């Protein structure tokens, strides 16, 4: 493996393991608060607070973007990531306690790979085209089959 990829892959693996904890914590919070949507809101408020502190510290060191830079951001980019994140966290908070972490994440990751393969193949939303060759399709098919086994199991 390319040495330049070790740190990003290691951090991604760590983040993936950490994300596995999120629905369990949020599910417990949803029970206490009486709503998965309330728990998701708390999740985003906590996350926004942490990110605001990190960005503030980074901005003090490296500066903040200029107003004209901010004005160039297309309107959908201000909303899309957060809206999709809210959908994910709300769904995870509600579904994971019902189906279990294994079934939830198996289904989630299989669906992510199917969508990612299509995004890559067609070069959608600004991604470089990476053809869905036989090896990549077979890998996704194996993951979908594995997810089915985990959900069934």
TrEMBL record:
Please report a single Pfam family linked to this protein.
DMT_YdcZ
User: Which positions, given as ranges, span the membrane?
Assistant: 44-64, 76-96, 102-122, 134-151
InterPro entries, A to Z: YdcZ
**What are the GO cellular component annotations?**
plasma membrane
Name of protein: DMT family transporter
Residues in a coiled coil are: none
Keyword field: Membrane, Transmembrane, Transmembrane helix
Q: Which organism is it from?
A: Marinicauda salina
């Amino acid at each position: 493996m390319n040495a330049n990829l070790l740190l990003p892959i290691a951090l991604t693996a760590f983040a993936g393991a950490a994300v596995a904890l999120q629905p369990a914590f949020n599910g417990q919070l949803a029970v206490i608060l009486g709503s998965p949507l309330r728990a998701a809101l708390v999740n985003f408020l906590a996350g926004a607070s942490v990110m605001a502190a990190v960005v503030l510290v980074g901005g003090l060191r490296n500066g903040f973007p200029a107003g004209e830079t901010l004005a160039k951001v297309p309107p959908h980019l201000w909303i899309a990531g957060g809206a999709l994140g809210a959908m994910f966290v709300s769904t995870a908070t509600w579904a994971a306690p019902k189906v279990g972490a294994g079934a939830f994440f198996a289904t989630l990751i299989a669906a992510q790979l199917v969508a990612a393969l299509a995004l890559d193949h067609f070069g959608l939303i600004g991604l470089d085209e990476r053809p869905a060759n036989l090896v990549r399709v077979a890998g996704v098919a194996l993951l979908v089959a594995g997810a089915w086994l985990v959900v069934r199991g």
